[in-house]
Predict the 3D structure of the following.
Amino acid sequence: MLKRLNIILNIIAIIFLLLISISITELNILPGKYYYPMIGLLLIIGILFIFSIFKSNKKSLLIISIISSITISIISFLGLIYLNSTNKLLDNISFMKEKSIYYIIVKKDSDYKELSDLDNKNLAIIDNGSSNYQKALKEVNKKININTIKYKNINTIASDLVAGKVDSILLNSNSKRILDDILKDFKNNTRVVDKVVIYVKRGKSTVINSNEPFNVLISGIDTAGDINSVSRSDVNIVMTVNSKNHEVLLTNIQRDMQVQLHSTTGIKDKLTHAGIYGIDMSRQTIEDFLDTKIPYYIRVNFDSLVKVVDSIDGVDIDNDVAFKGYTRNFEVGKLHLNGKEALEYARERKKMPSGDYTRGLHQEKIIEAIINKVTTSKKILNNYSKFTSVLDEFIQTNIPSSTIKAYVKEQIDTMPKWKVISRAVESSGSALMETYSMPGMNLYVAFPDENSVRTASTIINGMLENKKYDTINK
């Protein structure tokens, strides 16, 4: 009886050893100097179990073998859960969908209580050619019959609703937030009767050889919670990665910088509004602006930064501006920040000497601190599932899992030191102007300094050609 139990448990242990060997191989983040000894050790343990099946006859040896097989099976089972969840996470993060919310808004004191009450009534929309608007309108049409009225001016559509000249209007959640902030009459005299959710189509990601330099757009949206919701992109940093020279260039572009949104003509917009139309619009608009290719993106929000920083036990920065925050006083000098403190440091603008420009540099400081900590700690790299566990809920990216694995593997193998360079595209004045996304409403816009744009483009493209930063920036 004891021998039969030993045979069954040893076979189970061998199967688990085989499965965990396959999982380690598929994950493909361990360098050869770690991978081959580990596989060799698993092979030796497996051979010992095979030997035990045919040779163990003594009761004492059978008991030892049974205990060993149970122990190895439990450890292997837990390891399989760890490895498979990590592998699945890295393979699935690029399949997230972006969703945009559109509200059907009526006058506060109207008789319209629900969407069905608006059947055969008129619905006003902003006619700016956005395909997202058309998708939202199509969803409304599936539920009720509507008479569409097109407007070119956001102020007019808002005032006409309040005045009772139209029955309802269709606005995306971001436009509604702006109107609520600026026009108190609109906020106090309107209400939402229904909403529709549409999904923003994203292009296929381009797979680049992990040895080649590439650009990544780091886009930070101005929300907490659901990372899949489109919103204004308040952080716009192009990260140029050159693995040959082990250099990372961070190029910050102010959120209010005036740009021509990709595939639009005529009236320009400010960069933050590109995020309203999805991450691809932000990415392609910045590609046009800097005349470079940006195949990848990392999309984060407020919660993302808090979770990432906390997952690596905080970051260390060298603060250049003293200010009093909500959570702590940020003194000049070396500071250790937890997730909430890092978020506050990255968001503060009003107390900064150069406003949004300084805020952008501080955002780069936080990113640099994260890069430095992740790339210099083998403890974090070897337990990187704790770091990547925040990806599933709080980070959206189209970087292929094979590229992520290749960089983790190289870092564990040789632990190269990376040089992080921070730059910013400068502005040359500002004004209150009409924008593409909010036509008819004057909003703050910063004008790009054309020389600064050209310099940024030259340096980024030079690094993509494997030139060192110091060689380009003479």
Observations:
- Residues 59-92 form the longest helix (34 residues).
- The chain has a mean pLDDT of 86.
- The two ends are 80 Å apart (CA to CA).
- The first strand starts at residue 98 and ends at 107.
